[in-house]
Q: What sequence folds into this?
């Protein structure tokens, strides 16, 4: 479950990822009618996503779930409106309950489902993903967050103990052991930072498995992001369509959105630096000059070294309008 | 082009392929079940496909007589009509639409011949139909793998009142004679027939083996009245898809296994045989009590089968008048698991399995309490008496003409849940404490442990 206790001011990348998702939903589902949608997500104890979906898009039909009864009670207190249903449910049971959730909101026709996994029970997660996808319909949006930290596949020298030729091969073998049927044959090695890209490929196979089970189903990635505030995560947002419908989904204009993804390998890395208000103000004055000049305007590296700082500032420029300002109300 | 390039070569089958290779693909008992399948298909043709009535097959019968000397099977299911005789003896069916709009199961036109080739070195098939009676013979020469002669002798017979087919195999292959003479094989065959044709027998079809009627075996599941809150009920799903009716029911055929039962089952192979999912196509059992990935165990949210789940059973039933749409392989005893229709049913089956396995896990250690819920329910025939989805189900998204009713099984109290205490001690120590507590050393370890706890709890409350 996603009940993460790290406050948002320490997780600007996750914050930006969520803002991107809100903008994406606006582009993707507004043409179809927001009033038709139900938002279904684990939510965490404070229901941050649910609040965002309510305040940005006005979607009131919401469902949150957690396996822990205490967390569910806490969600009930924190829900954005009285229409949010908070249920005690294991993510494993979500696919089973989708019809019931739709029955709770009888006038709604489409779903936005977000499975926000932080753990590494990948086999179960991929099976749940397929089981959820086959139950989705034209116009639905499916989003999944997966732990893409290479450390979940290898630690220290354990590749040597396993007599693997290198850590990359060892990681690939471990991932194959976990999710053999969803692992592309061509993947023989996974670098320190490459697990997110590999998991995106695995998701493509999972989507194809769902399409094979339900032959009218079409699954298209619309936003793939990776970020690292603590552990590296991969988030994939997928548009669900069906072959027997006339209105295209995603709508044709969607491809003009700056962040729309062109395929399973088009992953955006969100890698912004953690900046103070003063630092932001200095950098923003140079925003139009490019990352190099922005960095040169500082007498320090906002990240570990020059290359990483440049990379972070490029990411800062790309996601500038989503960058959060967090301040204590007592300051 | 030269003459060499114009040459053609023979691309047809060999006799050997049919008489001695294809027969290896099928188990002996399954080959006999194929013969009974043909009898049932004959009855279905006689009924012109009207097989929905609860006693539709009443009066139709197949009788098998097997010994170490010979084998024969006869039925009263209508015989082979004259126009169908030639097609019936071809190896493979030339057209798929022979039984258009009839819920038969034979599709490939190989079952009867393969069974004959597997069993005997000669055979006679006699058919008594309304429009004439015929006998077709397979002699030893014809059945010789190297003999490429394919013509079969056919002669007219004097017709009789009882219409049907009799297959007589007067000379058995030696390995088959050994099996047929073995009483244990005969019992196994009876068991298989009871399982495979249980649902047809429920509709009145009768099968005898060496004069003895085979009893029907069908799935009985615990269910309680729909108005009862917190009752044990099966998961139930029903849909019509492309002319195929799909039913999926998953529930408990017996109460939860106690921890001792589970331990015993893990050590010895006992009593899990009836657990699992069976697949039934046009009333015939195609897959029996499956506990593998095939029916969804170990996939998605469903755990792999474990002895603690030995009370869970269910079925997937496909019924159609277009048998080519059934997800079954040529042997008719296995599934085409990749077909969309099967995958949809499997998806529903997994939902039922998820509910039942989650119930078992939630009540782990509290089996006695859970089993009081079973006492309040009744075991009913799952196919004929449990129709929850059709009567009370709700729509299934993305699947028109489908209804389902979740089992929504009771959950234990979570605010003050029961917890299991489990530990091991040496036998002589347990006997000593048993003597101390009960004045006898023969109490069970769990009774001794429980008494220790209860007395200590009582003491602790005094303070």
A:
């Amino acid at each position: 479950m996603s009940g993460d206790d790290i406050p948002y001011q320490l997780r600007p990348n996750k914050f930006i990822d969520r803002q991107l998702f809100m903008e994406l939903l606006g582009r993707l589902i507004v043409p179809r009618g927001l009033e038709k949608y139900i938002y279904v997500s684990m939510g965490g104890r404070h229901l941050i996503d649910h609040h965002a979906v309510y305040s940005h898009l006005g979607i009131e039909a919401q469902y949150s779930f957690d396996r822990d009864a205490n967390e569910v009670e806490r969600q009930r207190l924190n829900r954005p409106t009285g229409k949010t249903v908070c249920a005690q449910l294991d993510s494993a049971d979500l696919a089973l309950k989708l019809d019931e959730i739709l029955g709770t909101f009888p006038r709604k026709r489409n779903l936005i489902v977000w499975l926000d996994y932080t753990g590494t029970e990948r086999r179960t997660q991929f099976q749940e993903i397929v089981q959820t996808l086959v139950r989705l319909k034209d116009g639905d949006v499916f989003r999944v967050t997966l732990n893409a930290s290479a450390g979940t596949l290898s630690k220290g020298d354990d590749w040597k103990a396993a007599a693997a030729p290198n850590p990359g091969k060892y990681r690939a073998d471990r991932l194959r052991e976990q999710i053999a049927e969803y692992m592309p044959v061509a993947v023989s090695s996974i670098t320190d930072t490459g697990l997110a890209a590999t998991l995106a490929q695995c998701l493509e196979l999972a989507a194809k498995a769902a399409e094979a089970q339900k032959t009218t189903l079409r699954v298209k990635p619309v936003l793939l992001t990776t970020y690292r505030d603590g552990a590296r995560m991969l988030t994939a947002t997928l548009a669900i369509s069906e072959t027997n419908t006339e209105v295209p989904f995603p709508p044709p204009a969607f491809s003009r959105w700056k962040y729309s993804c062109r395929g399973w390998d088009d992953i955006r890395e969100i890698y912004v630096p953690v900046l103070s208000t003063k630092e932001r103000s200095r950098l923003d004055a140079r925003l139009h000059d490019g990352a190099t000049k922005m960095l040169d305007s500082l007498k320090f590296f906002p990240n570990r070294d020059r290359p990483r700082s440049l990379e972070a500032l490029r990411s800062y420029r790309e996601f500038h309008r989503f960058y959060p300002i967090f301040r204590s109300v007592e300051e | 082009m030269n003459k060499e390039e114009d040459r053609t070569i023979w691309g047809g089958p060999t006799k050997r392929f049919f008489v001695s290779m294809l027969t290896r693909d099928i188990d002996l008992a399954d080959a006999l079940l194929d013969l009974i399948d043909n009898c049932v298909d004959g009855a279905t043709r006689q009924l012109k496909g009207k097989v929905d009535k609860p006693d539709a097959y009443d009066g139709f019968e197949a009788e098998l007589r097997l010994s170490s000397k010979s084998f024969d099977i006869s039925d009263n299911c209508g015989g082979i009509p004259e126009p169908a005789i030639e097609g019936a003896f071809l190896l493979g069916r030339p057209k798929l639409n022979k039984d258009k709009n009839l819920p038969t199961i034979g599709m490939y036109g190989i079952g009867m011949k393969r069974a004959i080739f597997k069993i005997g070195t000669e055979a006679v098939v006699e058919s008594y139909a309304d429009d004439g009676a015929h006998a077709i013979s397979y002699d030893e020469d014809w059945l010789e793998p190297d003999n490429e002669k394919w013509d079969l002798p056919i002669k007219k017979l004097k017709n009789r009142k009882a219409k049907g087919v009799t297959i007589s195999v007067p000379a058995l292959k030696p390995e088959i004679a050994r099996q047929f003479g073995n009483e244990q094989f005969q019992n196994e065959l009876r068991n298989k027939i009871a399982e495979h044709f249980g649902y047809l027998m429920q509709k009145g079809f009768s099968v005898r083996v060496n004069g003895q009627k085979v009893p029907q075996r069908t799935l009985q599941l615990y269910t309680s009245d729909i108005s009862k809150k917190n009752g044990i009920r099966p998961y139930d799903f029903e849909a019509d898809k492309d002319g195929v009716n799909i039913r999926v029911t998953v529930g408990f055929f017996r109460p939860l296994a106690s921890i001792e039962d589970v331990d015993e089952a893990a050590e010895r192979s006992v009593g899990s045989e009836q657990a699992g999912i069976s697949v039934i196509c046009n009333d015939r059992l195609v897959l029996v009590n499956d506990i593998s990935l095939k029916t969804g165990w170990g996939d998605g949210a469903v755990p792999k089968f474990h002895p603690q789940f030995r009370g869970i059973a269910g079925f997937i039933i496909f019924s159609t008048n277009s048998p080519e749409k059934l997800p079954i392989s040529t042997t008719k005893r296995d599934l085409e698991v990749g077909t969309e229709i099967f995958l949809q049913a499997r998806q529903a089956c997994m939902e039922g399995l998820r509910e039942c396995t989650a119930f078992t896990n939630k009540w782990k250690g509290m089996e006695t309490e859970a089993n009081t819920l079973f006492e309040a329910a009744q075991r009913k025939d799952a196919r004929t008496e449990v129709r929850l989805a059709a009567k009370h189900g709700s729509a299934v998204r993305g699947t028109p003409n489908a209804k389902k009713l979740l089992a929504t099984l009771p959950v234990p109290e979570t605010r003050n849940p029961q917890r299991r205490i489990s530990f091991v001690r040496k036998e002589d120590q347990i006997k000593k404490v048993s003597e101390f507590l009960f004045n006898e050393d023969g109490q069970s370890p769990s009774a001794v442990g429980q008494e220790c706890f209860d007395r200590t709890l009582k003491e602790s409350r005094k303070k």
The mean pLDDT of chain B is 88. The interface with chain A takes residues 299-301, 338, 340, 343-344, 347, 350-351, 354-355, 358, 394-398, 404, 406, 414 of chain B (CB under 8 Å). The longest helix of chain B spans residues 340-362.
